[in-house]
Design a protein that fits this description.
Length: 133
C-alpha cells in the first residue's frame, strides 16, 4: 500500500515539476525579449542623438553596436550580426546568441528545440517561440 501511495505522489510531483520548469523557461524568454526590445530602442535613440552619420553607435561604457544605416525604415536598428545586437544585450552566459544575416536567435546554453527568442534586424521585431519549452 505504501508503495502505491509513493507511486501516486511521485507521478503528481513529476508532472508539477515539468510544468514549473516549462513556466520558468517561458518567463526567462519573456524577460530576455523585454531586454532586447529595450536595448533596440536605446541603440536606435542613441543613433539619432549622436547624428545619423555616426556608426557604429557607442553606448555607455564604450560598447559599440553595429547598426543599419539604410533604408530609412531600419535606420539605427542593431544588426543581427555578432557586432550588432549581442553587444547591446548583456545576457551574462544565461543565453547563447546565434548571429544571422537577417535574424539572430537567443537560446539556452543547452539548446531546447522550439524554445528561443528571435530578433529580426530589418524591423527590430522580437518573437518568442515556446512550443518546445
Amino acid at each position: 500500500m505504501v508503495i502505491v501511495i509513493l507511486g501516486i505522489v511521485s507521478a503528481v510531483a513529476t508532472s508539477r515539476y515539468a510544468r514549473y520548469t516549462r513556466e520558468a523557461r517561458i518567463a526567462a524568454l519573456n524577460g530576455l525579449a523585454g531586454a532586447i526590445r529595450s536595448s533596440v530602442q536605446i541603440v536606435r535613440m542613441r543613433y539619432y542623438a549622436n547624428g545619423t552619420n555616426t556608426t557604429p553607435v557607442t553606448l555607455a561604457g564604450g560598447i559599440t553596436v553595429a547598426v543599419a544605416t539604410n533604408p530609412l525604415v531600419r535606420r539605427g536598428l542593431p544588426l543581427s550580426t555578432a557586432a550588432g545586437l549581442p553587444r547591446a544585450v548583456n545576457v551574462a552566459n544565461t543565453f547563447t546568441y546565434t548571429a544571422g544575416g537577417a535574424q539572430g536567435t537567443y537560446n539556452f546554453p543547452t539548446p531546447i528545440a522550439n524554445c528561443f527568442v528571435r530578433y529580426t534586424a530589418a524591423t527590430g521585431a522580437v518573437t518568442i517561440t515556446t512550443t518546445g519549452c
